[in-house]
Fold:
Amino acid sequence: MSNLETEPEELVCPPSGARGIEILEPRDVPLGGPRAMGVRRTLPQKARSLIGAWCFVDHYGPERTAMDVPPHPHTGLQTVSWLFSGEIEHRDGVGSHAVIVPGGLNLMTAGRGIAHSEVSLPGTPAPLLHGAQLWVALPDADRHTDPFFESYTPAAITVGDATLRVFLGSLAGSTSSARVFTELLGAQVDLPAGASVDLDVDERFEFGVLLDTGEVSVDGVGVPVSHLAYVPPGSSRLTLTAGATDARLLLIGGVPLGEQIVMWWNFIGRTHEEIAEYREDWESGRRFAPVTGYDGDALPAPVLPPIRLKPRG
Structure:
């Protein structure tokens, strides 16, 4: 998915180190204008920009709408697509063509540069779209790797009363085969009303809990729907407790990245000059192989801000 903001904010993301659970509020972002599908964005924001190497979290739906995101570029990151309902057709510049379906991970590694499109499959009435789009920042040593695409369908496992689907990394004996470049975790957790589960986790990891539906608390701290709870490193156990209704959530985490990154539009780099070069390459038809099979024009890049992109704080 693209960041379609016409004036995207430049972000330099320092390593995080705050103690205690934080609740990050979402902000509404229209994709493609006020009549297009809206998303609720919890990462990045000024209070916190990274959870492990996770750097971007959009939560959308359920809504009967059609997604139509034209070809657009990415650098220095991996896109993680996860659906609860609906189907989305993916095409990219390395020739991948896949249909994203609920319960299946679609992971695109942009590396030095890739372009892709995402379009809802046609249907009457409009499809019920519901899911999340997340980005993972690639570490400096791997961010210029060749781009590639892969899919993975995790098996559902049971831990106490909880049902887990581990789509990245390892948890509770389940390990994803999808390739990552830092130590990461990504999983869907379903909890019936009133149930609680204790998860043994890596104490080096920091975590994010995005509540999709229902009610849940994280180590006793309540999380509103569509909000993201941040849990700092230092604990080897994470307790999730459902309220009066069934809960469904995404659990993300990882070892703190320990690097500063510059995010602007759909690019991740390390300097102003890199971001400007990526933008110029996209506008000039360099670096990014074209996406075939999409009926329409590619997405133009926004204008760079009139000041130099530089670190904050």
